[in-house]
Design brief:
The structure holds two protein chains of two kinds.
Chain A (H helix, E strand, L loop, with lengths): L1 H39 L7 H41 L3 H4 L6 H34 L9 H17 L4 H32 L4 H26 L21 H41 L4
Helix pairs in contact in A: 1-2, 1-4, 2-4, 2-6, 6-7, 6-8
Chain B lengths: L5 E10 L2 E11 L4 E5 L6 H9 L6 E6 L6 H6 E4 L11 H11 L5 H10 L13 H13 L5 E5 L7 H14 L5 E5 L3 H4 L5 E6 L2 E7 H8 L3 H8 L3
Parallel strand pairs in B: 3-7, 3-8, 5-6, 6-7
Antiparallel strand pairs in B: 1-2, 1-4, 8-9
The chains are: A mainly alpha, B alpha/beta.
Chain lengths: 293, 233
């Protein structure tokens, strides 16, 4: 049943969100063309027509940034709006009478939200690459210089530090995933509590509970750092052992990476625990306190 | 333990301090069409929503074929709410596929033939349909399942008399001796002819639960007449 829920939730999100991603790609193409033309205009020429062209192409270049910002906001908005309508409004009558468990409903909402976050991130990544590749070439149509530089950087980094460079990349990726899950579940929980507590001003109550939850998490994290002494806080002393004067990148890497590990893992475990708490509370409220008007 | 299709024991539901249902105990058998009747605000919708698991009881419990509201009871209950609950962007066919996907007991052919009989456009989006047509779609979906318990909250309130007759006929035709239909309505005269039994509730409490035949034989009254007497304002 979870698969069916995911399929349906994904389709229902895609119906609205797919056009936004196509719009981002369309804006990227416009911006790329605009920037490539703008780049090649003769700026010493003050002819009116060239000035106008400069203005238009400059404007075209800006479209991509606007489209990316607008689409990102819209993706988040639609994900939460679908959640709210599906669970806390009239459609809740359908959702909660389906032969599925409450946790399946929550998992489906979380997984489809993550899928769409990933899709929109990939689209932004593709857009930026299209822009860099085709919009920024100085003498050539395609600009590969940026990639050559990046490749060189990674090649050098790997040749000095070696395979261990994979670890910080993995750790950052893991952290981004956990933070995203936590942000999504945070809003879900606020929407659930707001929808249950208030009959008339559900959205307003949800916004209030969003901040209440935020304060609760801050208090917990403060308590945690107290319990662990000051070890949760990164201070200048944490980096005392770093041989800044050395030219040896590997030993700098080892000390910095090593020094970061306790903070990283403490905070990651804390974040995972917060995610679990958000999920368990959401489940509890939906299962035991749900009173659809 | 005898297995009633719907069984409530000491069931209470309070909204704040207002009792919507108070200490209700009732056991509904299998194979009957039962009217859930009472004045506005008597607790009809509350009872149905408790049976669906959309509300949680304040006290007591409610069971469908022995199961408390949960995944097992939800596979057995086909519920028609008193409001539009289908996403308005879906087409009628998408709604049918949705039900087919989630309910193993959904009869696709039955749904299609009912839609045709009620002349509902299958490819129209829900939001383009009139309120009455939307109600017909919901009723088609709900009655196309081969459920153990049908909970119909005001199924005929918003549709025209011709469709009303077809719908009542459909309910009669589709239900079988393994299933129970509970119909909440105040259009008693319209549903009276198909009811085997009726429940009167008022202020969240049971007033009477009897069979239509015994009412006719013992008191020589129709449910409609009896209702007007019991709930005289």
């Amino acid at each position: 049943m979870l698969g069916k829920l995911i399929k349906h939730d994904f389709n229902s999100l895609s119906r609205v969100l797919l056009p936004t991603q196509i719009a981002v790609l369309g804006a990227t193409i416009l911006a790329t063309i605009g920037f490539a033309i703008n780049f090649r205009l003769d700026y010493s020429n003050n002819d009116g027509l060239v000035g106008l062209l400069r203005l238009i192409t400059g404007f075209m270049s800006g479209i991509m940034v606007l489209a990316i910002i607008a689409a990102s906001i819209l993706v988040a908005f639609i994900i939460f709006q679908r959640f709210y309508k599906n669970l806390m409004c009239s459609e809740g009558y359908l959702t909660f009478t389906l032969p599925v468990t409450t946790s399946e409903i929550l998992w489906s909402k979380l997984i489809t939200a993550m899928l769409w976050t990933i899709i929109s991130s990939v689209v932004i990544f593709i857009s930026l690459n299209i822009f860099v590749l085709f919009g920024t070439g100085q003498d050539t149509f395609v600009n590969t210089e940026a990639y050559r530089q990046m490749g060189k950087f990674f090649h050098e980094a790997f040749s000095t530090i070696g395979g261990r460079l994979v670890w910080p990349i993995l750790e950052v990726t893991l952290f981004v995933i956990v933070s995203t899950v936590s942000s999504i579940l945070h809003v879900y929980l606020a929407l659930i509590i707001g929808g249950i507590v208030s009959q008339k001003h559900k959205i307003l109550a949800s916004i209030g509970f969003y901040f209440v939850i935020n304060i609760a998490v801050s208090i917990l994290s403060t308590i945690l750092s107290y319990c662990l002494g000051t070890s949760m806080v990164v201070t200048a002393e944490s980096f005392d052992g770093i041989p800044w004067n050395t030219q040896d990148a590997l030993s700098v890497y080892n000390v910095v990476f090593g020094a970061m590990q306790p903070y990283y893992w403490t905070y990651l475990v804390f974040s995972v625990a917060i995610c679990a708490a958000f999920f368990i509370l959401s489940h509890y409220f939906l299962k035991n306190k749900l009173n659809l008007e | 333990m005898s297995e009633a299709t719907l069984e409530c024991t000491g069931l209470s539901k309070y909204f704040g301090t207002n009792p919507a249902l108070h200490n209700l105990s009732i056991s509904l058998p299998t194979g009957k069409i039962i009217g859930l009747l009472g004045p506005n605000g008597s607790g009809k919708t509350t009872l149905i929503k408790l049976a669906c698991g959309l509300l949680t009881p304040t006290e007591g419990n409610i069971r469908v074929c022995g199961f408390e509201p949960g995944i097992e009871s939800k596979t057995l209950v086909s519920y028609l709410p008193e409001r539009t609950y289908l996403p308005d962007w879906m087409t009628v066919m998408e709604c049918i596929r949705f039900f087919q996907d989630f309910y193993a007991d959904f009869d696709y052919d039955r749904a299609i033939s009912m839609l045709q009989a009620l002349q509902v456009p299958a490819n129209a989006r829900m939001k383009t349909l009139s309120k009455g047509t939307r109600e017909k779609v919901q009723l088609v979906l709900v009655m196309s399942r081969r459920a153990r318990l049908y909970l119909l909250d005001e199924p005929i309130g918003g549709v025209d008399p011709a469709a009303r007759d077809y719908i009542l006929g459909t309910i009669l035709k589709n239900y079988n001796e393994d299933s129970t239909v509970l119909i909440s309505t105040h259009l008693i005269a319209d549903v009276e002819k198909i009811l085997d039994e009726f429940i009167f509730i008022q202020n969240g409490q049971l007033v009477s639960y009897a069979s239509t035949d015994s009412l006719r034989e013992d008191l020589g009254k129709s449910i409609d007449q009896y209702f007007r007497e019991v709930f005289r304002c």
